[in-house]
Amino acid sequence: MNEVLLRSLTPSVLGVLVRRGADFAAAEDAVQDALVEAVRAWPADPPHDPKGWLITVAWRRFLDATRADAARRRRENLLDEEPAPGPAPAVDDTLQLYFLCAHPSLTPASAVALTLRAVGGLTTRQIAQAYLVPEATMAQRISRAKRTVSTVRFDRPGDVATVLRVLYLVFNEGYSGDVDLAAEAVRLTRRLAVAIDHPEVAGLLALMLLHHARRAARTAPDGSLVPLAEQDRGRWDSGAIAEGVEILQAALARDRLGEFQAQAAIAALHADAPTAEETDWVQIVEWYDELTRLTDSPVVRLNRAVAVGEADGPRAGLAALATLDASLPRHAAVAAYLHERDGDLTTAARLYAEAARKAPNLAERDHLTRQAARLNSRRSR
Amino acid sequence: MAKYLLLKHYRGAPASVNDVPMDRWTPEEISAHMQYMRDFATRLEETGEFVDGQALAPEGTFVRYDGEGRPPVTDGPFAETKDLIAGWMVIDVDGYERAVELAGDLSAAPGAGGRPIHEWLEVRPFLTAPPTVTE
Questions:
Q1: Where does B2-125 sit in CATH, by number?
Q2: Topology of domain A290-381, per CATH?
Q3: Record: contact A369-B23, CB cut-off 8 A
Q4: Residues A282-311: pLDDT tens digits?
Q5: If interface means Cβ-Cβ distance under 8 Å, which residues of chain A face chain B?
């Protein structure tokens, strides 16, 4: 049985239950029960109509739970007071679920967890493992999130930007466990792109595909980070790159630029270069200028300083860096790199060591310590 | 079984025998050290003695309550803090002897020149739940 196929049915099954009048939290529980039941029953007795099977089982579970619930009467009264179902909703169920799970009343951590469960069909245990928290903690986070959104009406479109931020978080801050969160984020974004025609959704999907394509080359066998310039480009996934570039070009042609499209354009320029030396840094700087215009983020300005260093030489990069706040994350690492390229190995080694002390994760810390060690051992020779 | 915390300090422990900061090692020596640490954790997982391991950033903040309706007061980070924890490993072992043996192995991780660091690690027993039989 294909677990991903099973999980891909989750949002539409959940949508059917909600449309039939189940409240979101109870419907979501019922769908989870049905998924667990499917994992148990399908291998021996695969259904002809998997979606129909899931709807039947989930609906039965919902009714059982509702009947068992002491609040049954209250809930039925509530249903009686609901207006009769009108014409078919303008926004499809899957899209509504994305909006609901990324609702602005939720914290980012809650929105991520709820999206992975209600849209992604992952179990609480899988999500807990992925984010390195106890299962009970994640269960609590999800049930609080469901309570928070339980009063949100299910029939009007939300803000697609909030959904994109949640999917970006899943992609970018996925940790470990037996679920590949980056791949899951790509899958969920792909589905979103089918449900809604929006250039930034396409931009985010392209960005994810282009970064995901480099994954095999990004870490050495011993787990250490391999910087972009040193990656074996033969190990990049050319299929994912081609798809990402095609999606991006179609999005850019619509002339509604946004930050994800601009970020994807930068990733595409890296992907286009057969070797690191052939990278079109001038164009990359131009895209960073666009990004600065769109977001005015100090992190973008920092990355721009690196690109300027490559396009116009390390002195120009250092000049761009000098205009930025030195307390920015990774400022010391960027300064170290530019000083090394400028030939000042003593300053570079000192800054790499400082950057290692400030590194936000172990992989970066080890990488920066190695950089300092590499320069120090070269100088002492 | 008994749980122990193996504490590694940035500062506050007595000086190691092979006391050279890591950015003064060669890249190969760093790789050998990392491999040793990974192998150590893997071995503990295989023997069923590993519970948890985490590394901490060197800079932290002190925080305290400042009264009703006020935001908490923060202070630091302090450059002069004497005791600075770098990370920990929690192990669940048969007893104190085994905890000391494992801490000794961990302290033998190779450093500059490929020689053991002889780093001082602190071994702290967890306070456990009371036993069922008390007499």
A1: 3.30.70.1060
A2: 1.25.40
A3: yes
A4: 999 999 999 999 998 999 999 999 999 999
A5: 222-224, 349, 352-353, 356-360, 362, 365-366, 369-370, 372-374, 376-377
